Each structure stands twice: as C-alpha cells, then as structure tokens.
Amino acid sequence: MQQPFKTSTALSGVRYEIRGRLANQAHEMERRGYEIISLNIGNPGRFGFRAPETMRLAIIENLQSAEGYCHQKGIFPAREAVVMQQQERGVVGVTAEHVFIGNGVSELIDLTLRALLNPGDEVLVPSPDYPLWTASVTLNQGRAVHYACRPEAGFQPDPEAIARLITPRTRAIVVINPNNPTGAVYSEETLHAIVRLAEKHQLILFSDEIYDQMTYDDARFMPLAPLVNDTLCATFSGLSKVYRACGYRVGWVSLSGAREQAGDYLHALDLLASLRLCSNVPAQWAVQTALGGFQSVQDLVRPGGRLYESRRVIVDSVAASPYLFVTPPAGAMYAFVGVDRSRFPAFDDQAFALELLEKKHVLVAPGTSFNIRDTNFFRITNLPDADTLKDVFGSCSTVMWSSAAPERPAGASRRRLAFAWRQ
Q: Which of 144, 219, 256, 397 is deepest in the core (most CB within 10 A)?
C-alpha cells in the first residue's frame, strides 16, 4: 500500500484563511452558478475599480524594454520613483540601491524575514495582523510574538505592552499602518514610542504602509521612516491597493535609517533577490507614473467618494444594530466588526461565516483569521458600492440567538448565531 506524501513540518501553524476553506467553498459555489458577495478580501478589480489609465499606457509603451530580465532589485526608474517619494516624506539618504522591487509586497515580506531570521528568533507582530506576516515569520523558522491592539483602545498598539514582550531573541517589530484588518491609523505619539523601543533594543522596524494614502475624515497618516535614525527601517508599499492594481504584482521595500550597521543584511537581501532573478518587469514600468502622477485615490476617500460612502454605510449600519459594534476605520479598506459577547456568549466567528456563506451567499473573513483569540469579530471590505452594502445590511432584519443566549426567540433551535435575512 502506498504511503501518503508527507508535507513540510515548516507549515505547522501556518494559516492564511482569507484564501482558505471558506474562500474555496465560495469558489465552488460560484462554479455551480451561485452569485457570491465577496466581502472577505481587498481585491479592487473584483468590484469594478480600475488602475489609472496612465499606468496601463506606461506598461504598453515600454513593453519592448520588458522582455528580458532586469536588475535583481528592479528597473531603475521604478526604484528612483520610490526614492523620490521617500525624500518628499522627509526620509534622507535613500538611493535606488536601497530599494528592492518585488512581485507584490508579499514576496518582499518573505525575503526580508528570510534574510534576517535564525531558528527561534522572535518578531513582534500586531494582533490582529495581516496573517502573511505571522505565516512568513513561521516559515522562516522564527517565532511570531503578538502584541495586542485592543478594540477598547481603538486598535492602537500599546508601546508599554510591546516593551514587555522584548527578549534577547527579539529581532524586529512589525508595524501595519494604516492597519489591515482594523482600519486603525496610528497616532504620532504611538509611532514615536515604538521607534524609541526599536532604537533602544536595536530591532529592525518593518513598516507595512500599503494603504498609506487611504485615510478618512481627519485621520493623518504618518510614515515611520522619517522618525527612525538609530536602527534600520524597512518600508513596504506597492501598486495593489492605492493604485487598484493587485494583478500587476508590484511592491517595493525601501531601507532607511542606520544602514551602516546593516551591510551584511543588505547583501543577504541582494542575494535572495538574485536567486529569484527579478520581479515582473512589464508592470514595473507603471511605478514611476503611479507615484509621480495625479493621486486619484484622494477622490475615492473624501466625502462623496466611493470608498468613503461605502465606509459610511458600514459604520451607520453597525451603529443601528443592537448586536454589532465597530471602531470606525480611519484608513485602509476594511472594517473589523464585533458581535456583542454579552448578548451572544456562544458566538463563533467560523461557524457564523460558514452559515452566512451557505445560506445567504455572503463571504466574510472570520476575525480569528487575523491571529486573535477573540471569536466575536469578522472583517469585511468597503470595496463594494454603497448600494450593495446597504442591501447586505438592510437584509439583516433580525438576529437569531444561539441556544446559549439568555433571550433566544421562541422556536429558534439553532446552536450558532446567524443573520435572519429577509426573503
């Protein structure tokens, strides 16, 4: 009898449920003809967003220059455009040699951690987090140590709590700002405090700023790199979100701060970049146009803009519900919605998401997908238009109580919470 092939033990504890079991079931339902409202993932193209036309034209006009491998760090015009953006933000001393272009930020997260970690090294990661960070730490033999960003604090990190987690094995602190999944935009005071910790303990700062221009109302995004002097700061961004070009698979990381201490690390990054030859060349030609052109995302995030109005629907709909709560997202393209635990003590986010998909063909991401212990949250995106989101929340006419809840309606026998939708 043939034995099954064994998988790598490195995958133990690795999860990416945003594209996991629930998403796979949704794809299967779509193949059977069901229409699924996918609120689980930040994929602008699925909801009709287009990358700016000037970016597409830049790719087309440079196709003749994109058929061969480029430098392992990326084409010079793209890297130089990142340098100029960093300089405009007050980052000094960065040149094109300190910028790496990757197949999306995802690849660069893996490369920067692989160049750093030895078995058992620790990286401080926010909870909730974008789960690729935790997965990449684990896959590169490190240990992700989560620092809590609690809803009662507006999902802002607590620098004092972070300080208590630092050990001799700690190598880096991850900052995701504006935050995915919560939409929090970190205060200047909080960022300064995290930088002081990193500089004191000589920890690398990994600053994930992919949503840097997606802020709402009076929220102000502050880049981390200008605050960093005495340690290394790696700033990540790309074309996927602000420029609505996920499929281009173009991201970048810019290294600033105390680079004189990081010669070996930069060499390791260059080696790893060389091993994958180079990133997607044609789409790199869109970077200079994207960063140097009109920033059309501003029309989407101000009052009257599509992202702003969809966010407003989510916030208003949750406020009108006696069972839900949310910290209004100050940035990014998500809302991290909570369910009142006092009313639903037995609420389970996974069971809820599964029933919502099976019964009402709406796909959300359970909160525990983002490395939190609480099971009473789920994440949705504000990418659908406002009318679609109104229909989603408007259909939610009543809430069925679990059998463990004290006020379960007569005749309700389900053992898990589900929305009761209008037919």
A: 256
Note whether 185 and 199 are same-domain residues: yes
- Same domain for 285 and 303, yes or no, is no
Find the domain containing 334 and state its range: 9-49+299-421
Distance CA 22, CA 6 (A): 24
Tell me 401's DSSP state. Answer: P
Which residue shows structure tokens 């193949």?
31
What whole-number distance in Å separates Cα of residue 93 and Cα of residue 259?
Answer: 9
Q: How does pLDDT run across 199-238, given as a tens digit for each residue?
A: 999 999 999 999 999 999 999 999 999 999 999 999 999 9
Q: Does some domain include residue 2?
A: no
| Residue whose structure tokens are 């604090």 | 153
Q: How far apart are CA 249 and CA 239, in angstroms?
A: 8
Question: Pairing relation of β-strands 362-363 and 251-257?
Answer: unpaired
Tell me if the bond preceding 178 is cis, omega within 30° of 0.
Answer: yes
Q: What's the predicted TM-score (pTM) here?
A: 0.91
Q: Are 58 and 288 in contact (CB under 8 A)?
A: yes
Segments of 32-77 assigned E as strands: 37-38
Residue type, 306: R
pLDDT > 70: percent of the chain: 93
What are residue 331's DSSP bridge partners?
215
